[in-house]
């Protein structure tokens, strides 16, 4: 609070010397949008909506200053020194902190929302000397309304959630623990409103050509619509990358990138009757429908395509009688790509058909022993009843089935050995690997990815034996521990749009993701690069760090068809944390299955012997 007060009130005595500050180089793609308004007007809510719609980075200068102080950095110590000596944080120091943040790559690519800054004329002078501001959004509301909103706010100290006595009442069971912040006392609220009114009049002249006033008394949707109408007029793309606003890309992109990522583009348009799903940020995100018409048209800057560029409009009819909608083709993916997903969340794992069919008294993260004989029976049944992506029976020649069974029988770990081969089952019917059943390992993986109960039930004993051999030594039942290190995986195709969306969300919220299928990796990066570039020359690269003494993966060079590939195999539904993700590669950290069991047990209140029983 002390820092926020200083930022708000004290810059006049410590004005920065703008003539001595070098102009900051801001990437022309990164729009800078200022969001200002009095206390309780809804700046945070608006910023959240704009962040979702445009992919802008939300930056709170007050929070950045607090983070610096808490981190104990050199800059934080300097800020703290001024506070402890009763001085105000100098304007130059505040601008330095903001300049550093705006210079980071995410802002350069996506642009940013600068929340409640500048607050004084001196800050406005310094800011406009350093960066180009594209829009100043000013939320306004009557004083009486703002006082009512602020004085009725209540904070839940356990969760940080904000409630309101009348506008957003808390659940009855937590009402007694809510507190009222000192800043929300009526006297202080009126004082803060007066301070805002005084300062905003002094800073508006510096942004006169870019100010957009918004009526803050409407609903969240109405206020967001007002702001969006203003921001939509900005240039968001470039001539080389004219499209913008897709949740699958971190910034502007071109039609070639869209096609490579699994979206339609003018050269490969959807056909009438195709089922599509929209991935553009905004009200149509996730909207599904059936294509009813297409037309080539020049953009006027609407819908995510730079003004003057030619694109393909796709008109589609959503389900349940909703009004027809349209989108540029590059934001649309086939619905089957939306539904097909080798990546899932823990909740999706727990509610999957795989989980329902999996039988292990120690829980979903573990597996019971399955004999080779039982796995062989399952292999025969799975091959004989195998269907492709469209539900058509896969015509596997009798000679191929005999060849597979002979290889299975002749190797001690026959189930793992067969997975490492490139055994052909039938002719390839789809260029999309997620719909292809022509190879043994791919057919097995896609059986798990599709998660259809009937198909999966046939293969479960085979899958469970493979998983057991990855996690345990069959001779004595001891756990197999991987020594740790870095492995790589090269995919010829980029993850489908839904998978990319899940990866970005997992990174953003710190959640784990799981691969439904077996994950085959190698300790040889050059080999992963070779597989990655074998089709269009680009593909996608996975970088996986495995902790030491890791339970949940096995180096299988001793049983693999090609020992020189130094293969490491993860069981189905292995968990990973997303470190970084972009359009070309993703870095993951593998989650140990034993530690995952421990953590889940503790979260559910289990202690001591109960944890041991669950794990062992």
Layout: helices, strands, pairs:
Blueprint: H1 2-9, E1 32-36, H2 43-54, E2 57-59, H3 61-71, H4 74-84, H5 91-102, H6 105-110, E3 112-115, H7 121-130, E4 135-140, H8 143-151, E5 153-155, E6 162-164, H9 186-203, E7 211-215, H10 220-231, H11 255-260, E8 275-278, E9 288-298, E10 310-318, E11 325-328, E12 332-334, H12 335-339, E13 343-344, H13 346-350, H14 353-357, H15 372-384, H16 398-410, H17 414-420, H18 440-450, H19 453-471, E14 485-491, H20 497-509, E15 512-515, E16 519-522, H21 525-532, E17 540-546, E18 554-555, E19 567-570, E20 574-581, E21 585-590, H22 593-603, H23 609-615
Parallel strand pairs: 1-3, 1-4, 2-3, 4-7, 17-21
Antiparallel strand pairs: 5-6, 8-9, 8-12, 9-10, 10-11, 13-15, 14-17, 15-20, 16-19, 18-19, 20-21
Please provide a written account of the structure:
- The chain is α+β, with helices and mostly antiparallel strands and 616 residues long.
- Helices cover 38% and strands 17% of the residues.
- The protein is built from 23 helices and 21 strands.
- The strands form 5 sheets. It has a 6-stranded mixed β-sheet. A 5-stranded parallel β-sheet has the order 2-3-1-4-7.
- Helix 2 packs across helix 10.
- The two termini are 50 Å apart.
């Amino acid at each position: 609070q002390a820092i926020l007060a200083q930022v708000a009130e004290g810059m006049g005595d410590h004005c920065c010397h703008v003539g001595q500050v070098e102009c900051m180089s801001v990437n022309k793609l990164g729009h800078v949008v200022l969001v200002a308004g009095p206390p309780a007007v809804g700046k945070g809510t608006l910023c959240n909506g704009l962040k979702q719609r445009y992919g802008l980075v939300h930056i709170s200068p007050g929070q950045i200053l607090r983070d610096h102080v808490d981190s104990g950095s050199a800059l934080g110590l300097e800020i703290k020194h001024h506070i402890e000596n009763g001085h105000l944080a100098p304007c130059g120091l505040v601008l330095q902190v903001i300049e550093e943040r705006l210079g980071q790559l995410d802002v350069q690519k996506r642009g940013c929302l600068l929340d409640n800054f500048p607050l004084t004329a001196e800050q406005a002078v310094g800011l406009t000397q350093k960066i180009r501001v594209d829009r100043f959004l000013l939320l306004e509301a009557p004083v009486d309304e703002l006082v009512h909103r602020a004085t009725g706010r209540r904070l839940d100290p356990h969760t940080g959630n904000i409630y309101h006595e009348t506008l957003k009442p808390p659940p009855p069971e937590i009402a007694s623990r809510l507190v009222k912040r000192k800043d929300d006392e009526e006297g202080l609220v009126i004082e803060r409103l007066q301070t805002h009114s005084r300062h905003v009049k002094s800073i508006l002249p510096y942004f006169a050509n870019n100010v957009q006033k918004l009526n803050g008394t409407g609903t969240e949707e109405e206020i967001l619509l007002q702001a969006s109408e203003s921001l939509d007029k900005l240039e968001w793309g470039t001539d080389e990358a004219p499209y913008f606003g897709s949740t699958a890309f971190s910034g502007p992109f071109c039609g070639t990138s869209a096609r490579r990522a699994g979206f339609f583009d003018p050269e490969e348009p959807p056909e009438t009757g195709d089922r599509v799903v929209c991935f553009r940020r905004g009200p149509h995100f996730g909207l599904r429908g059936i294509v009813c018409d297409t037309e080539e048209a020049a953009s006027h800057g609407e819908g995510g395509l730079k003004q003057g560029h030619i694109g393909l409009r796709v008109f589609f009819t959503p389900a349940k009688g909703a009004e027809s909608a349209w989108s540029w083709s590059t934001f649309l993916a086939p619905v089957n790509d939306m539904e097909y997903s080798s990546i899932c969340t823990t909740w999706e794992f727990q509610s999957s058909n795989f989980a329902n069919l999996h039988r292990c008294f120690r829980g979903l993260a573990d597996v019971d022993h399955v004999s080779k004989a039982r796995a062989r029976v399952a292999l025969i049944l799975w091959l004989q009843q195998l269907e492709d992506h469209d539900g058509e029976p896969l015509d596997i020649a009798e000679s191929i089935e005999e060849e597979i069974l002979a290889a299975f029988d002749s190797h001690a770990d026959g189930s793992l050995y067969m997975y490492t081969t490139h055994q052909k089952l039938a002719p390839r019917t789809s260029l999309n690997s997620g719909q292809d059943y022509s190879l043994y390992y791919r057919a097995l993986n896609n059986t798990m990815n599709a998660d259809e109960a009937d198909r999966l039930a046939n293969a479960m004993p085979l899958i469970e034996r493979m998983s057991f051999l990855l996690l345990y030594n069959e001779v004595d039942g001891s756990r197999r521990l991987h020594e740790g290190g870095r492995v790589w995986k090269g995919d010829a195709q980029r993850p489908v749009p839904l998978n990319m969306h899940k990866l970005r969300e997992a990174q953003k919220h710190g959640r784990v993701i799981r691969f439904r299928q077996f994950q085959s990796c190698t300790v040889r990066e050059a080999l992963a690069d070779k597989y990655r570039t074998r089709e269009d020359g680009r593909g996608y690269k996975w970088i996986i760090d495995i902790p030491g003494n890791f339970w949940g993966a096995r180096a299988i060079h001793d049983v693999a068809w090609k020992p020189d590939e130094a293969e490491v195999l993860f069981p189905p539904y292995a968990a990973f944390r997303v470190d970084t993700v972009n359009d070309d590669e993703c870095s993951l950290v593998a989650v140990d299955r034993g530690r995952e069991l421990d953590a889940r047990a503790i979260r559910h209140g289990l202690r001591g012997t109960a944890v041991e029983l669950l794990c062992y």
